[in-house]
Amino acid sequence: MKDHGGVVGELVRGEWVEPSTGKRCGIPIDNIVIRETLDGAEAELVSALHAGQSLTVVSDPFTHEALGRRIFDALRKDGADVREFVWQTPSCSDHGVEEVRAGTRGRDALIAVGSGTVSDTVKYACWLDDRRYSVFPTSPMNAYTTSTASVAFDGFKQSITTRAAKGVFFDLDTLAKCPPRLISAAFADVICRTTAQVDWLLSHLLFDTDYVDTPYALLAIDEAEMMRRSPDLLTGDFEALAMLTRVAAIMGLGTTFTDTTHSGSMHEHMISHYIDMFAGDRHPRSSHGEQVGVTTITMSQLQNDMLSNETAPVLEPTTLPEDWLREHMDPAAVETMIAETRAKAIDGPTALRLNRKLDDEWPILREKLTDSLVPFKQLDTAMQGAGCQRTAGDLGLDADFYREAVSNARWIRDRFGMLDMAGDSGRLESFVTGLPT
Fold first, then answer.
1. Which residues are within 8 A (CB) of 403 and not within 5 positions of it... i.e. 6 or more apart?
2. d(CA 68, CA 132)
3. What pLDDT digit, counting tens, does each position of 170-181 carry?
């Protein structure tokens, strides 16, 4: 059976050479497999990493039917000490994590089957219990290879550093059969590379914050061709789907090279988090990837607009609307938001220093940032080809609330990006007003 791992396999073997340093790069995951089918190989893959361990296969009702039952049966037939935990009400939250811990107590290792919700919950549960785990994805998302878990505590999402999986095993035949909506969402969730990179690079150029090129060098291997072939993703084309899967795997591995989620999660993710945290009854029940696709479109528009201007923005000290936030936001989240924003807020002296830098270096800064940017029309065309939702209306989200989310998402985390530059230069309000509905 053809191996579709490509550069991912090189990383597993420690053979990939970083172009700018000439150093070989490895990863903490022992094995990542991308094949057209894993049928008949499940037990061998698991036993190579979890020999002699008691196992529980964790899935939800949908992923159990898609793949979980098959894996459980294969392991049981192979003689493994294996149980099933079919999680009826999956939720990647503090309560959900405790539910999985209770349902798998006393087992040596867990085998997660399914979505990012199942994977992240198993990831964090195993971290708390000092257990190991492997994953069989049922959609081509980027959550499976990352060592961080996005968990909601009292409604406030936090990205928690945990431990990477022992193995991640992608069955392309299973992925091709997942709902087209999930494939579109997976594409949307990885195409945010462009906006996340621009935001992170902007922070680095202005404040000399840490910045690492390695994940972007890896993503560049497949990204352009994946975008060109985006319409093929919904036809079951294994080659196109393998490209998306490799890009998703590398997106998740970004934390391995950077020790942070910044390489693939900046202001586009903060807008999505705002929706999840504060939409309440207005929430459209869209998935994370779907939301990130729409917010990536928004951030791409903003970044392209800001960088098309030959005149450098003029920054003012950050005006943090503390009273408004306390009046309108969840009390459990607002003080954390205020503290996060204060950590990156621009004061008077900093504004003067940055404005001198922008005035002197804007052409150079623009060029560096634009080199990392995908032109908006190209991005929008690729997302349309992949069937992605592209506006707040596509999500079923109230237009006024979406404008609120774009206006206020910058207060969620201490991550400086284009929302901050636009907001502190007085350009964000007019941009938000003109957002399509």
1. 432, 433, 435
2. 18
3. 999 999 999 999
Q: How far apart are CA 187 and CA 322, in angstroms?
A: 36
Tokens linked to 14:
């420690």
Residue type, 261: T
Cβ(139)–Cβ(183) under 8 Å? yes
The domains of the chain, with CATH numbers, are 7-178 (3.40.50.1970), 201-210+260-433 (no CATH)
Q: Supply the mean pLDDT for the chain.
A: 94
Q: What is the pTM of this model?
A: 0.92
CA distance 387 to 61: 26
pLDDT digits (tens, 9 = 90+) for 146-178: 988 888 887 677 888 899 999 999 999 999 999
Contacts of residue 351, defined as CB under 8 A and 6 or more positions apart, other chains included, come to 315, 316, 317, 424
Query: What are the CA-CA distances from residue 284 to residues 394, 399, 401 (Å)?
Result: 10, 12, 11
Contacts of 317 (CB under 8 A, 6+ apart): 345, 346, 347, 348, 350, 351, 424
Alpha carbon distances (Å) from 310 to 194, 306, 330, 422 = 21, 9, 40, 15
What is the length of the chain?
A: 437
